[in-house]
Amino acid sequence: MKVSVKVPATTANIGPGFDCLGMALPLYNTVTIEETVLPGTGVEINVLANEDITDEFSLEHIPMDENSIVYKAVELLYNSIGQTPSELKITIHSEIPIARGLGSSASVIVGGLIAANELLGRPADEAALLSIATEVEGHPDNVTPAIVGGLVISSYEDDGGIVYRKLNWPDEWLITVCVPEYELATEISRSVLPKEVPLQDAVFNAQRMGMFVQAVNTKDEELMRLALKDKLHQPYRLKLVPGLEKISENLKHEESVIGCVLSGAGPAILVISKKNNLDKVKAIVKETWNELNINAQLYTFPVEQNGAKAVGVV
Ligand code: HSE
């Protein structure tokens, strides 16, 4: 039997929602798991990249052995029903840029998990899949929208469960994902974060998170301009993302720009804007990075409302 699962990219944090807000985007990885008949072949993992947006260097960051995150996710699922994965061939067709803050690791975890769940006759329900995926990833903000689609707020509870709710992103607000050519591993981007933060910074983000929910629910643009601020992760990561500070500064005077935030752990940047003046906004981002000799790809995306789904079971 062979199962393929298509999983969307995700952007996380979105300003104030460090480790809890995430949104699915229409770029996809496809993970295929095949049961092989040859005994003793073990688990083989292959990654096939879309040449346009990934490069050979990027692929070195996906570990190709059984320790890889995709294998870990599959193994946890098998273990949850008292089994161990044996002869499996896992193939990842990668369209999501790697190590850019667009959920490429969450997508392979989720893809592997859902494909294995199909192979096994669906022993895990959505709650179990969310929980296993978060255990492997460490936080739920990318894996939850990768599984359920849309804009999602989620929490990782003490019992290992995930509580999530979907929010509606207003169609009027464009999301432009600005992806620089350089990479930033999430591990490095998390290593610069402090273990503790000042109480007033925690209060600042709690205020913005409440504002964010109200702003999307009521399409309140003025509130959203305040809500997209953050003091929990971005200030510490600025030094790892050349251009972010300058891009934010250069966009500050553009009336159509509602906010500019780091996508996940970076280095991609999200620009949230109204529909007018998009070309100018994109030109400002490109020019600012150009001045630092950094090339970038910019995509203006709608929210992907669908989460991961099996696209082929044979
Ligand atoms: N919330 C995570 C972070 C997303 O900012 O590190 C990246 O995995």
List the total number of helices. Answer: 11
Number of domains: 2
Main sheet, how many strands, which sense, barrel?
Answer: 7 strands, mixed
SSE order, as H and E?
EEEHHEHHHEEEHHHHHEEHEE
Secondary structure category: alpha+beta
Bound molecules: L-homoserine
Low-confidence segments, given as residue ranges, are none
* Count of beta strands: 11
For this structure, the CATH topology of the largest domain is Ribosomal Protein S5, domain 2
Mean pLDDT: 91
The end-to-end span amounts to: 6 Å
Radius of gyration: 19 Å
Q: Shape, please?
A: globular
Question: What is the top-level CATH class of the largest domain?
Answer: Alpha Beta
Strand content: 25-35%
- Helical content stands at 25-40%
**Architecture of the largest domain, according to CATH?**
2-Layer Sandwich
List the helices and strands and how they pair.
Elements: E1 2-13, E2 17-35, E3 43-49, H1 56-59, H2 69-80, E4 88-94, H3 104-119, H4 126-137, H5 140-148, E5 151-156, E6 162-167, E7 174-180, H6 186-191, H7 199-218, H8 221-227, H9 234-237, H10 244-251, E8 257-262, E9 269-273, H11 278-291, E10 296-301, E11 309-313
Parallel strand pairs: 3-4
Antiparallel strand pairs: 1-2, 1-11, 2-4, 2-5, 5-6, 7-9, 7-10, 8-9
Helix pairs in contact: 2-3, 2-4, 3-4, 3-5, 4-5, 7-8, 10-11
Bound molecules: L-homoserine.
Account of the 3D structure:
This protein has 314 residues and is of the alpha+beta class. It has 2 domains: 2-167 and 303-313, Ribosomal Protein S5, domain 2, CATH 3.30.230; 174-301, 2-Layer Sandwich (Alpha-Beta Plaits). It has 11 helices and 11 strands. It has helices spanning 56-59, 69-80, 104-119, 126-137, 140-148, 186-191, 199-218, 221-227, 234-237, 244-251, 278-291, and strands spanning 2-13, 17-35, 43-49, 88-94, 151-156, 162-167, 174-180, 257-262, 269-273, 296-301, 309-313. Strands 1, 2, 3, 4, 5, 6 and 11 form a 7-stranded mixed beta sheet that branches. The chain has a 4-stranded antiparallel beta sheet with strand order 8-9-7-10. Helix 2 packs parallel to helix 3 (104-119). It starts with a strand and ends with a strand. The model has no long low-confidence stretch (mean pLDDT 91). The structure holds L-homoserine (HSE). Residues 12-13, 18-19, 139, 141-142, 186, 189-190, 233, 264-265 line the site of L-homoserine.
